[in-house]
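Agenda item 2: thymidine-5'-diphosphate complex prediction
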Amino acid sequence: MKLNNNTVFDCSIINISKVRNEAGNIAIVENEKNIPFNVKRLYYLYDIPGGESRGGHAHYDLEQFIIAASGSFEVILDDGENKKRITLNRPDMALHIVPGLWRELDNFSSGSICLILASHKYDEKDYIRDYPEFLNLKK
Ligand code: TYD
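Presented output:
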């Protein structure tokens, strides 16, 4: 299967719209309004032990919004040529990851929650979990 030739520069940080008031804030993500794909699945990582890293794979089709709903962590994006390390530390900030990129997540702060909005339902066939295979597909 052909892998998208997107680069790390096709990913961006998007500010999530907010309603603020004295009693606290609401951050809102709504299909067809402020997210560049339709959300089919939401999942979150929590209770992540110190020193752990997650990810370590690429996707053929999946697009994602990654949000530090609580605490902070870092995302390393890799397109086979360029790498970019991005810190997520605000619940009103989303990293938009396009398909075809290798990603890893590390440096999770204690109690952090990594919220992911995804463009497709879970499908193991959409994953590339072998880094040399990823590099080969990017050529
Ligand atoms: P994986 O996506 O590899 O996790 P991470 O990138 O955070 O390290 O998924 C880990 C396991 O969980 C894997 O066996 C597949 C399973 N899984 C589902 O069954 N459904 C899902 O929606 C997700 C994200 C994972």
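Discussion summary: The pocket of thymidine-5'-diphosphate is lined by residues 41, 43, 45, 54-55, 57, 122 (CB under 6 Å).
Owner for follow-up: CH.
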